[in-house]
Write a structure and sequence with these properties.
The complex is a heterodimer of chains A (410) and B (598).
Chain A: E1 2-3, E2 9-14, E3 19-24, E4 31-35, E5 43-46, E6 52-56, E7 62-67, E8 73-77, E9 86-88, E10 94-101, E11 104-111, E12 116-122, E13 128-133, E14 139-144, E15 151-155, E16 160-164, E17 173-178, E18 184-189, E19 193-198, E20 204-209, E21 213-214, E22 220-226, H1 248-252, E23 256-261, E24 265-266, E25 283-288, E26 294-299, E27 305-310, E28 315-321, E29 328-331, E30 338-341, E31 346-351, E32 354-359, E33 370-373, E34 379-383, E35 387-392, E36 407-409
Parallel strand pairs in A: 22-28
Antiparallel strand pairs in A: 1-2, 2-3, 3-4, 5-6, 6-7, 7-8, 9-10, 10-11, 11-12, 13-14, 14-15, 15-16, 17-18, 18-19, 19-20, 21-24, 22-23, 25-26, 26-27, 27-28, 29-30, 30-31, 31-32, 33-34, 34-35, 35-36
Chain B: H1 2-13, H2 17-24, H3 30-42, H4 47-56, H5 62-76, H6 96-219, E1 225-228, H7 245-292, H8 301-326, H9 332-362, H10 367-483, H11 487-501, H12 506-516, H13 524-535, H14 540-555, H15 558-570, H16 573-585, H17 589-597
The chains are: A mainly beta (410), B mainly alpha (598).
Chain lengths: 410, 598
C-alpha cells in the first residue's frame, strides 16, 4: 500500500491476485483497478508525480507503466531482479532502472515526465545489486553484489565518474547511504567497516571500524538498564500518563532507562554461522541525520548497539547499547534526533542533548516492530503487529518530555 | 769481524802450538775460539799472557817474529815496523816508535774490541731475553690463534646452521606464497567457472523469460487491463505532450542544465572555501610575522637573522598581498607563493619556539622559568579546582537523580491520592445530582401514586355507587318487568341500557341474574342472548354459556350452579378474579336480590 506523492491517491496492490486498486481522497467514488492478469505482480509503486504506477510483473519479466492521466501503457523490458533496482531522484525528474541483458548489467535513465529513455549504459559489475541517486540528483551510485566490493559512480548523463573498490575476494558491500547534502557516500561492508567517500574526489575520506571493545574515552556509551521494579506488590500506583489505569501485568513489566557506562567497555557480539550465505555480520544499517552531522550505523555482529558517528570530526560520538537487538532506527527529518525500536514495548530517542527510553502505554504488551517519523518531525508512528501508536513530541520542551497517545486497530 | 778476531786473537796470544796452528788456519770455527777467547779475556791475563807471549817469540826467532809481525801488521794496514831502508842490502832496523804505535793501536783496538764484545754480549743477552719473551708471546699467540680458530669454526658452524634455517624459512615462505598464489588462482578460476555457469543459467533463464513473455503477450489477455472511472489530471495541471525528437532534445537540455547547475554550485562552494582558507592563511602569516618581529630586543644573532629574514619577508609579503589582491586568487603561482611563505614563517616560528624551549630547559632559576613554574602551578590549581567542580556537579546530579526518582515514586502517591480525591469528589457530585434527580422522580412517583390511589378509591366508590344504583335500578326494572310483560322492548331497553353502561364484568353477573330469573323471562332470553351476543362480540364463550344457560334454564336449575363454574374458567385473569370477586362479594346480594325478586 502506498500513498501518492501529492497525497491524493492511495494505491493498494494485491500481489497474489495481480491486482492494483487506486482510491482517490478527493472523490470517494472515483476508482481505478489495474489487472495484470497472467503476467502476475511482484512489486508496485507510484511514480514521483503521483500519476503513474509502475508494476513489476512476475519473474521480473517487464515493468509496466500505467498512466492515470492518459490510460496508456508503456513497457520496460529486462528489468533486473535485485535488491534495489529502481530509484527515483529526489525531485522526481528522473528514474534509474537496473537492467540485465545477455548476462551484462545496464542502467537506464528515464525522464519521468514522459517516460523517455534518456541514457542507457552498461556497468562494469558482475552482478549489480543496487542503484541510488544522490540527493542532488546529479550522481548515481551503482554497487555490485556482496561477492565483489565495487561501487561505480555515474553522472546524470551516463559518464563514469569514478570506481571505488576497497578490497577483493572477501564479502563486499552490505549497505549504502548518501548524506543529505550529497557530500558523502557511506558504504557499509561485510568486514564491519563504513567507508566514507567524498564528493569531490570520490576517494575514501575515512573509514569507521566497529570493534567490540571501545576504549576511546571521548565516546559516550549509553547502556539500557532495567529500572528496579517498584517495591512491594501492594503498592499499586496510578501511572502518571493520562491513559487511565494500567493492568497489573504492565506495571510489573520493567521500565528501563539509560545510564552512561564508563569506557573501556566491551559490547555483546554475535558470532555468525560461517558456512551459511548472507551471514549476520557487517554494517547492515546506515542512516545520515538530516543536517549531515551524524551518521547512525548498526554492525550486525553487535546487533544490540547503535553507533553514532560525528561527521564533522570524523570520529565515534556515541554508542547506544540496548537490551534487545535493534530492529530499526530512523532520523527525525528536521533535526538530529534518532528514534530506535527493538521489538520491545519501548521506543528510544537520542539527540545530542541526551537520550531517553519511553514505554509505549497500552493494554498488554505493544511490541514496537517499526517506526516512521512525520515529515514535520513532530510526531512518530510506532507500528506493532496489529496496533499502531502515534507519539507526539512537544517542540518547546526537551526530547520525550510529553507523550500522548492515540490507539486504533489497523 | 769474526774472521778478524780469529786472526788477531791467535796473533795476540801467540803462545802454544795450537794457536800457531790456528794462525795458519785462519778459517776455523770462530765460535769455539771466540768463546775460548772470551773466557780468556775475562780472566785477567796474568799467567797465560806470559806463556802466550813466550810461546810465540823466543830469543832465537826474534827477526822472524819481527818480520812476521811486520807482515801481519802491514797486511792489516799498520805502518811498517821497520825503518825506512837506507839501502837495499842494509838490514831492516826495527822502528821502535812504529812498534810502540802499533802496540798502542793494538791496545786501543783491543779495548775497542772488548767494549764491542761487551756490547755484543749485552746485546746478546738482551736478544736472548727478547727471544724468550717473543717465544712466550709466540706461544700465547699460538694458543690464541688456536682458540680463535676454534671459535671461528664454531661460529662458522653456527652461521651455517642459521643459514640453513634461513634457507628453510625462505623456502617455507616461498611455499606459503606459492600456496597463496595457488589458492588465489583457484579462487579466480572458480570465480570464472561460477560466472560461466551463472551466465549459462542466466541464458537459460532468459530464454524461459522470453518464452513466458511471448506467451503472456500472445495470449492477449483481456484481463490485462486498466479500469479507470475517469482520467485524472496531471499533477502540475499541464497537458501531456507528444513524444517527438524535440522532447528528446528538451530532455537532454534539461539534464545538462541540471548537471551544469550542480557543478556551478559546487564550484562556487569550493571557491568560497578556497577564499576563506586563503584568508585564514594570510592572517596566520601576519600573526606569525607580528609574533616574530618583536624579537629585535634579544641579542642573539640568529634572532637578528630571523628578524632580518622576517623583515624581508614582511616586505615581500606586502608586495605579495598587493599582488594577490590584484590578481585572481586561483592562480597557481600565487598559491605556491602563499604556501611557501607560510612554510617559511612556520619554520622560523618553530625554530624560535625550540630556542625558547632550550632556554627554559637550560636555565632553571631565571624569573622566566619561575614564571613557567608558577604558571604550571596555577594551571595545576585550576585543574584541581575544575576537578572539584566536576565532582560537585556529579554529586549534585546524583542527588538530583535520586530526588527525581523519589519524586517520581512519591509524586505518584500524592498525585494518586489527589486524583483519587478528585475522582471521588466528582463521583460524589455526580451521585448527589443523581440522588436529587432520583428524589424528584420519587416525589413525582409518589404524587402520581397518590393520585392514582385516589382515583382508584374514587373509582371504587363510584363503582359502589354505580352498583348500588344499578341494583336499585334493576330492582325497579325487575319490578317493572314482573308487572308489565314486555320482554322485548323492556329487555331491549334493559339490556341496551345495561350493555351501554355496564362493564364486561358486570354482565356475567347480570347474565347470572338473568339466568336465575324464572323461566317467565324465557321468551326474552333468546332475544336477550342475541342482544347479548351483539353487545358482547368479544366473548363467544359467553354466548355459548348463555345458550347453555338458556338451555339449562329451560332444562333445569341445577345447571345454574354449573355455569358459574364454567364461566369462571372461561374468563381470563382479572376478569375471572373480579368476576369471582363480584360473585363472591355479592353472594348474598344476588341470591338476596333474586330471593327478593322471587
Amino acid at each position: 500500500m502506498e500513498w501518492s506523492a501529492d497525497s491524493l491517491f492511495i494505491l493498494c496492490a494485491m500481489y497474489k491476485r495481480g491486482l492494483v486498486q487506486v482510491w482517490s481522497l478527493e472523490q470517494p467514488e472515483w476508482h481505478c483497478k489495474i489487472d495484470e492478469g497472467s503476467a502476475g505482480l511482484v512489486a508496485s509503486c507510484w511514480s514521483p508525480d503521483g500519476r503513474h504506477i509502475l508494476n513489476t510483473t512476475e519473474f521480473h519479466l517487464r515493468v509496466t507503466v500505467w498512466s492515470l492521466c492518459t490510460k496508456s501503457v508503456s513497457y520496460i523490458k529486462y528489468p533486473k531482479a535485485c535488491q534495489q533496482g529502481m530509484a527515483f531522484t529526489r525531485d522526481g525528474r528522473y528514474m534509474a532502472l537496473a537492467e540485465r541483458r545477455d548476462c551484462k548489467d545496464f542502467v537506464s535513465i528515464f525522464v519521468c515526465s514522459d517516460w523517455q529513455l534518456l541514457r542507457h549504459f552498461d556497468t562494469d559489475t558482475q552482478d549489480l545489486a543496487g542503484v541510488e541517486w544522490a540527493p542532488n540528483g546529479c550522481v548515481l551510485a551503482v554497487w555490485d553484489s556482496c561477492l565483489e566490493y565495487k561501487v561505480l559512480l555515474y553522472s546524470l548523463d551516463g559518464r563514469l565518474l569514478s570506481v571505488y573498490s576497497a578490497y577483493e575476494w572477501s564479502l563486499g558491500i552490505k549497505s549504502v547511504a548518501w548524506s543529505p547534502s550529497s557530500q558523502f557516500l557511506a558504504i557499509g561492508s561485510y568486514d564491519g567497516k563504513v567507508r566514507l567517500l567524498n564528493h569531490v574526489t570520490w576517494k575514501m575520506t575515512t573509514e569507521f571500524g566497529h570493534p567490540a571493545a571501545i576504549s576511546n574515552p571521548k565516546t559516550v556509551v549509553y547502556r539500557e538498564v532495567e529500572k528496579s521494579p517498584p517495591p512491594g506488590l501492594g503498592h499499586l500506583s496510578l501511572p502518571p500518563s493520562r491513559a487511565g489505569a494500567r493492568p497489573l501485568t504492565n506495571a510489573a513489566a520493567s521500565e528501563s532507562k539509560y545510564e552512561v557506562a564508563s569506557v573501556p567497555i566491551s559490547l555483546q557480539t554475535l558470532k555468525p554461522a560461517a558456512d551459511r550465505a548472507n551471514p549476520r555480520m557487517g554494517v547492515g544499517m546506515l542512516a545520515f541525520s538530516p543536517d549531515s552531522y551524524f551518521l547512525a550505523t548498526r554492525n550486525d555482529n553487535i546487533p544490540n548497539a547503535v553507533w553514532v558517528w560525528d561527521i564533522q570530526k570524523l570520529r565515534l560520538f556515541v554508542v547506544l547499547e540496548q537490551l534487545c537487538p535493534v530492529r530499526s532506527f530512523q532520523w527525525d527529518p528536521q533535526q538530529p534526533r534518532l528514534a530506535i525500536c527493538t521489538g520491545g514495548n519501548k521506543v528510544y530517542l537520542w539527540s545530542p542533548a541526551g537520550c531517553v527510553s519511553v514505554q509505549v502505554p497500552g493494554e498488554g504488551d505493544f511490541p514496537v516492530l517499526a517506526l516512521c517519523w512525520h515529515s514535520s518531525g513532530d510526531s512518530l508512528a510506532l507500528l506493532g503487529k496489529d496496533h499502531f501508536c502515534l507519539c507526539f513530541l512537544e517542540t518547546s520542551k526537551d526530547v520525550g518530555a510529553a507523550f500522548g497517545r492515540r490507539d486504533s486497530c489497523t | 769481524m769474526g774472521d778478524w778476531m780469529t786472526v788477531t786473537d791467535p796473533g795476540l796470544s801467540a803462545e802454544s802450538q795450537n794457536i800457531s796452528l790456528y794462525t795458519s788456519e785462519t778459517k776455523m770455527s770462530p765460535s769455539s775460539l771466540y768463546s775460548q777467547q772470551v773466557l780468556c779475556s775475562s780472566i785477567p791475563l796474568s799467567k797465560n799472557v806470559h806463556s802466550f807471549f813466550s810461546a810465540f817469540c823466543t830469543e832465537e826467532n826474534i827477526e822472524q817474529s819481527i818480520s812476521y809481525l811486520d807482515q801481519e801488521l802491514t797486511t792489516f794496514g799498520f805502518p811498517s815496523l821497520y825503518e825506512e831502508p837506507k839501502s837495499k842490502e842494509a838490514k831492516k832496523e826495527l822502528n821502535i816508535v812504529a812498534v810502540l804505535n802499533c802496540m798502542n793501536e793494538l791496545l786501543v783496538l783491543q779495548r775497542k774490541n772488548l767494549l764491542a764484545q761487551e756490547n755484543v754480549e749485552t746485546q746478546n743477552l738482551k736478544l736472548g731475553s727478547d727471544m724468550d719473551h717473543l717465544q712466550s708471546c709466540y706461544a700465547k699467540l699460538k694458543e690464541q690463534l688456536e682458540a680463535s680458530r676454534r671459535e671461528i669454526i664454531g661460529l662458522q658452524e653456527r652461521d651455517r646452521q642459521l643459514q640453513c634455517k634461513n634457507r628453510n624459512l625462505h623456502q617455507l615462505l616461498k611455499n606459503e606464497k606459492d600456496e597463496v598464489q595457488k589458492l588465489q588462482n583457484i579462487i579466480a578460476s572458480r570465480a570464472t567457472q561460477y560466472n560461466h555457469d551463472m551466465k549459462r543459467k542466466e541464458r537459460e533463464y532468459n530464454k524461459l523469460k522470453e518464452r513466458l513473455h511471448q506467451l503472456v503477450m500472445n495470449k492477449k489477455d483481456k484481463k490485462i487491463a486498466m479500469d479507470v472511472l475517469n482520467y485524472v489530471g496531471r499533477a502540475d495541471g499541464k497537458r501531456g505532450s507528444w513524444r517527438t525528437g524535440k522532447t528528446e532534445a528538451r530532455n537532454e537540455d534539461e539534464m545538462y542544465k541540471i548537471l551544469l547547475n550542480d557543478y556551478e554550485y559546487r564550484q562556487k562552494q569550493i571557491l568560497m572555501e578556497n577564499a576563506e582558507l586563503k584568508k585564514v592563511l594570510q592572517q596566520m602569516k601576519k600573526e606569525m610575522i607580528s609574533l616574530l618581529s618583536p624579537q629585535k630586543k634579544t641579542p642573539r644573532e640568529r634572532a637578528d637573522e630571523s628578524t632580518g629574514a622576517v623583515i624581508s619577508d614582511v616586505e615581500e609579503d606586502g608586495g605579495e598581498l598587493s599582488r594577490e589582491s590584484m590578481w585572481d586568487l586561483s592562480c597557481e603561482t600565487v598559491r605556491e607563493q602563499l604556501t611557501n611563505s607560510i612554510r617559511k614563517q612556520w619554520r622560523i616560528l618553530k625554530s624560535h619556539v625550540e630556542k625558547l624551549d632550550n632556554q627554559v630547559s637550560k636555565v632553571n632559576l631565571e624569573g622566566f622559568n619561575d614564571e613557567d613554574v608558577i604558571s604550571r602551578q596555577d594551571h595545576e590549581q585550576e585543574t584541581e579546582k575544575l576537578e572539584l567542580e566536576i565532582q560537585q556537579c556529579k554529586e549534585m546530579i546524583k542527588t538530583q537523580q535520586q530526588l527525581l526518582q523519589q519524586l517520581a515514586t512519591a509524586c505518584d502517591d500524592d498525585t494518586t491520592s489527589l486524583l483519587r480525591d478528585c475522582y471521588l469528589l466528582e463521583e460524589k457530585e455526580r451521585l448527589k445530582e443523581e440522588w436529587s434527580l432520583f428524589k424528584e422522580q420519587k416525589k413525582n412517583f409518589e404524587r402520581e401514586r397518590r393520585s392514582f390511589t385516589e382515583a382508584a378509591i374514587r373509582l371504587g366508590l363510584e363503582r359502589k355507587a354505580f352498583e348500588e344504583e344499578r341494583a336499585s335500578w334493576l330492582k325497579q326494572q325487575f319490578l317493572n318487568m314482573t308487572t308489565f310483560d314486555h320482554p322485548n322492548s323492556e329487555n331491549v331497553k334493559l339490556f341496551s341500557a345495561f350493555s351501554g353502561s355496564s362493564d364486561q364484568d358486570n354482565l356475567p353477573v347480570h347474565s347470572k341474574q338473568r339466568q336465575k330469573k324464572p323461566p317467565s323471562t324465557s321468551n326474552g332470553s333468546p332475544v336477550c342472548t342475541s342482544k347479548m351476543t351483539k353487545s358482547l362480540p368479544a366473548s363467544p364463550t359467553l354466548d355459548s354459556c348463555q345458550t347453555r344457560s338458556c338451555v339449562s334454564e329451560h332444562s333445569s336449575v341445577s345447571v345454574l350452579t354449573v355455569t358459574p363454574e364454567e364461566m369462571k374458567p372461561d374468563q381470563v385473569g382479572r376478569e375471572c378474579t373480579s368476576q369471582t370477586w363480584s360473585v363472591v362479594s355479592r353472594p348474598g346480594a344476588q341470591p338476596g336480590c333474586s330471593v327478593d325478586a322471587l
